[in-house]
Amino acid sequence: MSDKPVSDNPDHENRGLVSSVPEPPAEGDLNRRDLLKKAGQVGAGVLAVGALGGTAKAAPRRIGQKRPPRGGKVTWALEQDPVHIAPFGAILTSNHWGKAPMYESLLEWDSKLNERAALAVSWKVVDNKTIDFFLRKGVKFHNGKEVTAADVKYSVEQMLNPPLPGSISTVGQVPAIEGVSVRGKYTARLRLKAPDARIYGFLAWNRYSPIVPQGMYQQVNAGREGIGTGPFRLVDFTPNDKVEYVRNQNYWKQGLPYLDALTLKTLPDEQARVAALRARAVDGATLSADSAKALAGDRNLKVLKGLTAAFRELQFTLKEGEDKPWHDVRVRQAVNHAINRQEIIDKVYSGNGEYSGHVPPGYGPWPLSRAELRNKYEKFDLPKARALMKAAGQQRGFSVTLTTFSTPLDFGQVAAVIKQQLQKININVNIVAQEPGTFAAANGRGAFEWDLTARGMRGDVDGYLAEFNPSASIYRIWYPKYRNVKVWRDIGNGRITLDQKKRLPLYKDAQQRLLTDLVQVPLVAVTKFQVVNRRINNMYVAFTDFNTGLHTSVYVK
Amino acid sequence: MIGYIAKRSLLVIPTLFGISVVIFAMVRLLPGDVIDILFGGDVTADEEVKQQAREQLGLTGSYPEQYWRWISRAFQGDFGDSLRNTEPVSAILRDSLPITLELIFLALLIAVVVGIPLGVISATRRDGTRDYAARVGGLVGVSIPSFWLATLLLLFTSRVFGWVPSLSYVSPFDDLGANLAQFILPALSISVFTMAIVMRMVRATMLEVLGQDYVRTARAKGVSRSKVVYRHALRNALIPVVTVVGFEVGVLMSGAAIVEIVFGIPGVGYTLLQAIANRDYPVIQATTLLLAVTFIVFNLIVDLLYGVLDPRITQG
Lengths: 557, 316
Fold this sequence. Notes:
heterodimer; A: alpha+beta; five-stranded antiparallel β-sheet; 18 helices; B: mainly alpha; 2 domains; 13 helices
């Protein structure tokens, strides 16, 4: 069983959740909660009838509901170049921004992170290590070829061993897939090495699990070209410049997409994006809170914002052979209660943010409630913090080095606020800002005292908690002295429990215990801002940070 | 003269060798290697998988071995493939170099076409209003960072005129007008510093030349003021300007890197900065080497031109 959690690199952060203009769910959509129920049945060997939703044609519109107009072209500014648009092994989030409009997976997420059927119309759990996926018939790739089980087999093989220009480093995101066999033209059997509940999230997260036609890598230069089933067909990708798409005329979701064409233009400089928005040279872009605020008064533009899956956290090392003050749980608890998260949100994020636990707010049903975090686990309580320091014999405090990213700039600002706050319990924090590559390398080696770091989007809740289980190799690097058998059991059982209903209490319990043990101190979830031209309708800040609204939700008027 | 050219050209070889070693070493000395970046998303990755990735990217072997592999291929025109998108580096440069060269050419053109007349006016109207205006302008020109000016210009035109240069590169061979419209702001942004330097240089040398005996003699013989200024004084005053312009190519190249980012122009500077962020060694090495070669070649041309303009130098 793979034990590898996902990204610490800001490149991998996937932001955004609360959609200001949410995507209207299609008829027959299944939300995450429904899916949990379904999957529970699936675990018991019951046929999961395609989630949902039947065939593409089964999307009758509600009476009186006006269909958005089709047509128009949208140009969206990307803040980072995709570098390449290969379907497998993409490292950067921007890789996915570039390729996402043309690729789809067996499952998909909607704007609220509900999983629903996509290229698979239904599936059946044969046993706890075998799942049959039944494909939607008649779905065609952009080259006109119909999607079959052979394509699924080929695609999964590439996921397990991504060819260049993808990177093999992404295999850590793949659950315990052993392989796929073709059971019929439209039936693919997926075999797992061990029961692994992460499989559904993985198959919905098309960042890592797109379906491509068999032999695609022999047919095209996959770094610059692509053949998918998505709503848009690639016209041209010019690195460091733009990605151009046109509508997939044969898209299986009838009537979608609304747009005729979509262009993604790389504009790394924020002021250039601001100028381009003002001049209507682009229709939308992600901006900082300050820039978004500056544009709020422009009558041609509107500001969208949403909470993000990315959250900031304080991370400790608890190594054998060391005796640091924070090895005492009371010191860690004191730190937790001495940190005023609301002050961080106000000072660094201009009031835009939310308290985060180990699972960020908005990640389906998994995170602890806002009230639990604010009033109990993450409550700012200076007297309590001081009492805990005293009880640990640390009332005189200590000095510690806190390492963080040099960019994005908010990391340094959060560190500065924390430094100020912890002075009140006599902890002297020395801040060291490092370039992201250096930071990531040192973090992976456990070469730090405290790190101010980040977590991003995960395909499954396990991705947020796996590192607290000794089966994760990073556990032995970061906190081998940490012991909590109940947490270990929760996380271990959570991964192999296919009945999602039974998983939920396990992960809730683990989070509560972790917020008492505090080997990591989650801080705040960050709000993402996007500014769009007023002619753009139905765009939303996607929780997954993949600009998914552009694909089938946005229309122009 | 031939001996002078040969001597100057031969000096390029050890210079290039030294530069290639420095570039290779500097790239390796950047904190955090490409494997760290690639695995930044997976702190739990095994060393075995990392080694696989190194082999996949051809990053195995000692640094001297890697250097030899790189430089021996580079001599054959093969700069390797990008580590991040596997595109041949030569193809990346083939696309981006003409863009940057055009930007630099336009910036130089603006600097020279505006800077020289300003210098002449300033020198011939010494201590007058126009001289003071030109000198203050020159001071502003050398003080203002090109990236800041670029941002200001962009925000100004978007706010006041609701216009920004085209966001997608337009080749001059497809549409010259659109191409010039796209390049005018970026070229202006990076030309201002060079323009100020040229203006100052022309002014200073013109003042010096205008005080020479032969100028006074020419005037005494009844040659018109404008003839003296343009035929005698300016011609001699331009000799140091040629040198300055040659050196300014380096300044323009560094300015272009940032300005390309601001305007989203996919030139060499833009490519280089992206490659540095991604630790894309082959792209960084080839791009830096190319920029160094461009700089060396310009300086060589300046040296040779200087020899032509002032034969005393070759004789010395």
